[in-house]
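A brief tutorial aside. Many learners find it easier to grasp structure tokens once they have seen a single protein encoded end to end. The record that follows does exactly this for CHY zinc finger protein. Read the sequence first, then the structure, and try to relate runs of similar tokens to stretches of the chain.
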Amino acid sequence: MRTFIQVLILDFLLVLTHTTLAQKQPSLSVIDSKIKGINIYGKPVDNQTRCQHWHSALDIIAIKFNCCEKYYPCFSCHSETADHKPSVWPKEEFSEKAILCGVCGTELGIQEYFDSENTCPNCNSKFNPGCSNHYHLYFETEDQDIGDVESSKTRTNGEAAQKPMKEISCLLF
């Protein structure tokens, strides 16, 4: 009977350990990142703007945030490291250079980035087409006003997050 209980306890511990390890995401080391003298803030993991949150071969852009005019690899990097709320770029400012190619360091205007077909016009590196799913976090979009960002992602504890004009809540995507 004692051996049976020991086996059960050992099995339980193995399952618990395996479950705990499976739930942990690997943590990539954060580095200081600069591209052509431009600082990349947040949690970059290489010198092509990949970060702890987004690090595929195609995740090679950084976005200059309208609120602070600093480049971050993604919205989560800004949310986790900036001391202020983000704000989206209004359509009137889509000519502003706010996208940085992590491969060659070319700065693109927002509209130029939209029109690029997910390819850097300077070095022909491919950008992640999935980034378009998050445009509403960075740029005013057709179906939203600047202060009216509403989706299931903007909810906290089942309630709508407070969003002052030109600001959106900190989100994790």
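Self-check: The longest strand covers residues 97-101. If you spotted this yourself, you are ready for the next section.
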